[in-house]
Amino acid sequence: MIHRLVAALLAPAVLALALALPALEARAAGDRPDLIFRRSTVFRLLSPNDKLATYGIDDPDVEGVACHFTVPEKGGWAGTFGFAEQLSDVSLACRQIAPIRFRSRSGQGDVVFSEGRSFFFKRVQIVRGCDAARNVLVYMIYSDKLIDGSPQNSTSTVPIMPWGANAEIQRCSEWIR
């Protein structure tokens, strides 16, 4: 009788772990952003605190652009084990850090970065576009959900400027359609 009760209580946890393994493998493959720092926002006595975490990424298709974004991370035991739904509040800043060179052609709104933010169907994404009239790269971060997305977002722009002695300036409209 006790064995059945324990098995019934453990079955959901085993199922959850089996469903989470592909996500854990993807994170281990190195497609995670660089953690810059974390700051606690809510103290929890017996479990990990809620935090704000700031990450950095390089645009995979546009050499010379880096983005930094801050997202809330739920603490507690549910947050620690990936079962808490993360908040949709996000902020983003992107900058030119070297001469800009496009590596490949892309479309307006193509995904630069995407990562799961909860155990079930919620993602944070950074997408890129081109403001052709101003020759400016436009980045937007937002979270979405399979059924009900969030309007909370942040936008950052990167004007394509000359860099160093070789001041060749590429036009984003020639690479992003």
TrEMBL record:
One of its GO terms (cellular component) is cytosol. Pfam families: CreA (PF05981). Keywords: Signal. InterPro entries: Uncharacterised_CreA. Residues 1-28 form the signal peptide. This is CreA family protein. It comes from Phreatobacter stygius.
